[in-house]
Each structure stands twice: as C-alpha cells, then as structure tokens.
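ARCHIVE CARD
CATEGORY: sequence design from structure
SOURCE FIELD: tokenized fold
FIELD CONTENT:
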C-alpha cells in the first residue's frame, strides 16, 4: 500500500533536517481520512503559525525571516491597538476630570470610540469606571460625555451595542438606586437613560432598565433629547481652551484640575444651568399645588396628588433657599468684574456724551447713553428669589388648610367630650323615674306641709318667713302675704295661665296655703 505525501512536502528537494514524526503521522492521516483534509485558506497569509509550520516543513531561512517579520508585525499591531485604547482612555479621563468644553476633543473621542468594536468596548469600560467610582463632578461629566457620544458617534450601532452590556447597565442601576448618589448626578443620568431608551425603540437593554428606575410621571417609552440643552451646544465664547496637549506633559495645570476633581467641585456653568432648571421645575410645582389647594377641602389633604406635589415643593424650596447666598455672592462678584471692565471704557463713553450733548440735550445735562446689563449671575439670583417666593406662598396655602383641618377636628372632638356627661346625666335621670324635661316647675310632693302644728301656733310674720324659705328652696319667687280668713280671689279659677305657667303654679300654691291657714285659725 502506497501513501501519498503531503502536498507541502517536495520529495525532489533535499531536506535540511528530518521530518518530525508528528508530521508523518499527520500526512498518513490526511491521506487515509478525508475528513481531516482542510483547505489552507482558513489561515491568514501573514499568520505566525502558518509561517512556523512552513518553516518546519521546508526548513528554509526565508521562512524563518517571514516568521520573525510576522511576529514583529503582530506585536506592532497589538501595541498600536493598545496605545490607541490607552489614548482613548486618557482622553476620556481628562474630559471627566476637567469637564472640558473643548468640542474638538469631544468629537475626536466620539470618532475614535465608534471606529471599531475594541475602541467602543474600551470607551464604555472607561465610562463605567468613572460612573462607578468617581466623584460627583466626574460622574456628572461622564454622564454628559456619554450623552454626547450617543448623539455624535459616527457608528452608533457599535457604541450602543457595547453600552447595553450587562456590566454597564448594572452600574447605571446601582448609581440611580443608591442613596449616596448626588441628586444632580442622578437626574443627569436619568435624562440620558430616558433618551437612550427612547432612541433604542424596542431594545430590551435601555428600555428594560428605564422601566425599572423611571419616575411615576415619566412615559415608559422614554423621553428624547432636548435639542436646546446646553450640554449639546458649544458655548458662544468658544468655551474653555483645551489643555489636554500640554497638561498631560507639564503636570502643573492638570494637578490643580485633578485636585478640584478629588474635592468634587462641579463646574460653575453646569451648576448655574442646573439651578435655572430647578427654578423652572419649582415654579411649576408651586403653580400646580396652588391650583389643587384652591378647590380642595380639609379632607383632601390626604390625597396622593396633593401629598406628592407638597413633597416636591418642599424639596425644591429647600434646595433653592440654600443656593440663594451663593448666588448673591456670585452676582456681586460678577457686577464688580463688569464695573471694572466698564471703567476702562468710561472715557470713550464720556467723550461720546460730550460730543452729542449739544445735539440731543440743549439744556446742558449729560444723557445716559449706556444701559447697564444684568449678568448671568444676577439673572440667576433674581430667578432664585422669585421661585423661592412662589414656593413659600404655595406652602403657606397648604399649611393654612392643614391648620384649619386640625382646628375643626379638635372642635369636633371637644364637642363630643362635652356631650358625654350630659348623656350620662340624662341616662341616670331616666332610670330614676324622673322626667327628662328641664322645667323648673315645683313638684307637688315637695310643696306639701309636713309640720302643720308649728304653723298653727305661729304668727302671720312667722308663717310668711317659713313660706318664703320653703319657696326659696324651690328657686321660685315668694308668694304674697295671706290675710286672716278666706283669701281674696279664692273662688277664682286655679287653672294655670297658658302664657305664664309659672305664675299659675304660684297662684295655686298661694291659695292652698291660704285655705290651710284659714281652717286652722277658725278651728
């Protein structure tokens, strides 16, 4: 039985060394088993393994050189790829540490991050590291950079596919649900996640996370980016000058920036933008709370809508009130800087006024040609004061309605407490057989004379005294004095008067005493 040699083995060419045993076995298996025959096209032309295999088979010096070149080429390619990834990581770290407004550098990072899958993976890894373990300022800048990369990447599919990785989504969820996260950072990350969920459509990555962590008043499909947001628009003044080229080498300026990053200092522009937005939200919440309280009753204070808006107004008022001193100091500083800048232009302005005084104002007074403009810091201070006043008014309405509800509840409780003794007294009077009527009419049993012998031997004055004392105990006016014999008017009707029942009772009592006294005297 004859075996076919491997095609790479040339029997006519003298071999410099013996063929390894493994190669002979492989050649026999390759001939006897067609399933092991594989084309050579599955290997790359410049692969080091292919060159090594050829060198082992042919044993030529050219193959060894090709092998060395291939290894060096692979090493250089890997070094370049690592250098590119490291450079991208350094740029992202610089942008998050300094909150730079250099849009040239920002767009360069976007292009490199979407160049290939490895760069996108490295960019997402760098963002995840800053969001997970960075200071509030770095987290805020990382969220802003993530939003810019989502909008401006040349190949958003590659970058978005890496952004929906399990590790990155878990980092976002931990950041949004953690109690130690700064409110400014949480709101910024929430806005970017809402826009990512809206842009991803039915993708379960961003959409699923958004539905788990979204507020109740937000739609489930997400919220698109606001095109007028300041973080997507370059500053009018050109922004800050990028210091990336020389800061990384000198280290003087970057040290200060990194120290600011370690202390968690938020850029003033971002802080002012956030405060303007908070003022707008606070005024809206105050308006809605005032409208709800205008038609509410004390029982409606437990309504979930009123309770939620009251809590939002409390949070907004607390945040705005704490920022008023800072805004006031910033407004004073900005006004001082503007006055200092205007002081240099005052001479030219005075010259223009003097030249135009004869034309515009013949009386000789100098007109005011320049109108002082308010700075952005002064506008922020005025906005904070206005929003704080509206929030205080809305909270005052809530407190007044709550106080009224408490007073009415206390009044109802005191009324119930006062009625309890009366009910007990009425119940005791009913069980004793007495009438429930509150009439002061004397009872016949209490008016009867129990000791007539004492009255028979007494004089008229003594009888009157006894009668007055007895009637005084019944809280009635004393009867008139009765003469000897039959009292005048004894034959009159003893029927009580309908208009004055008490007077009729008194007359009947007096007539009864008169008859008894007359019988005793005549007898």
């Amino acid at each position: 039985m004859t075996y076919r040699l491997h095609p790479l083995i040339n029997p006519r060419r003298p071999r410099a060394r013996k063929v390894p045993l493994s190669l002979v076995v492989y050649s026999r298996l390759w001939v006897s088993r067609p399933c092991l025959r594989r084309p050579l096209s599955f290997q790359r032309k410049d692969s080091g393994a292919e060159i090594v295999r050829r060198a082992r088979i042919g044993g030529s010096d050219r193959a060894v050189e090709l092998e060395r070149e291939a290894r060096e080429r692979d090493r250089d390619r890997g070094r370049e790829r690592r250098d590119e990834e490291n450079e991208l990581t350094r740029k992202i770290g610089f942008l998050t540490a300094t909150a730079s407004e250099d849009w040239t550098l920002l767009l360069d990072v976007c292009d490199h991050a979407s160049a290939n899958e490895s760069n996108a993976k490295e960019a997402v890894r760098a963002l995840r590291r800053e969001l997970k373990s960075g200071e509030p300022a770095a987290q805020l800048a990382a969220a802003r950079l993530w939003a810019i990369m989502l909008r401006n990447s040349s190949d958003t599919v590659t970058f978005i596919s890496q952004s929906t990785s399990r590790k990155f989504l878990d980092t976002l969820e931990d950041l949004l649900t953690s109690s130690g996260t700064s409110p400014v950072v949480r709101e910024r990350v929430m806005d970017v996640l809402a826009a990512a969920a809206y842009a991803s459509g039915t993708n379960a990555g961003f959409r699923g996370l958004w539905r788990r962590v979204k507020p109740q008043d937000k739609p489930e499909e997400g919220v698109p980016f606001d095109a007028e947001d300041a973080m997507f628009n370059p500053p009018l003044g050109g922004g800050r000058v990028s210091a990336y080229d020389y800061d990384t080498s000198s280290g003087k300026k970057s040290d200060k920036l990194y120290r600011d990053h370690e202390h968690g200092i938020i850029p003033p522009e971002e802080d002012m933008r956030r405060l303007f937005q908070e003022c707008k939200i606070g005024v809206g919440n105050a308006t809605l709370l005032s409208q709800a309280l205008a038609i509410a009753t004390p029982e409606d204070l437990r309504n979930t809508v009123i309770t939620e808006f009251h809590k939002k107004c409390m949070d907004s008022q607390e945040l705005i009130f704490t920022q008023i001193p800072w805004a006031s100091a910033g407004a004073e500083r900005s006004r001082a800087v503007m006055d200092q800048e205007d002081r240099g232009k005052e001479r030219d302005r005075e010259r223009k006024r003097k030249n135009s005084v004869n034309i515009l104002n013949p009386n000789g007074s100098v007109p005011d040609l320049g109108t002082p403009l308010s700075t952005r810091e002064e506008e922020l201070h005025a906005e904070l004061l206005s929003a704080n006043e509206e929030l205080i008014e809305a909270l005052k309405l809530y407190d007044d309605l709550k106080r009224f509800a408490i007073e009415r509840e206390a009044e109802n409780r005191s009324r119930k407490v006062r009625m309890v003794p009366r009910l007990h007294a009425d119940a005791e009077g009913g069980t004793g057989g007495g009438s429930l009527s509150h009439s002061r009419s004397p009872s016949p049993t209490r008016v009867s004379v129990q000791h007539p012998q004492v009255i028979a031997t007494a004089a008229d004055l003594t009888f009157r005294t006894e009668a007055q004392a007895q009637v005084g105990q019944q809280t009635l006016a004393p009867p008139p004095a009765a003469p000897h014999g039959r009292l005048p008017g004894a034959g009159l009707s003893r029927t009580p008067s309908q208009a004055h029942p008490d007077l009729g009772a008194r007359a009947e009592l007096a007539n009864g005493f008169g008859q008894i006294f007359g019988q005793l005297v005549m007898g």
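CARD ANNOTATION: The chain has a mean pLDDT of 69. The radius of gyration is 51 Å.
SHELF: design records, drawer C
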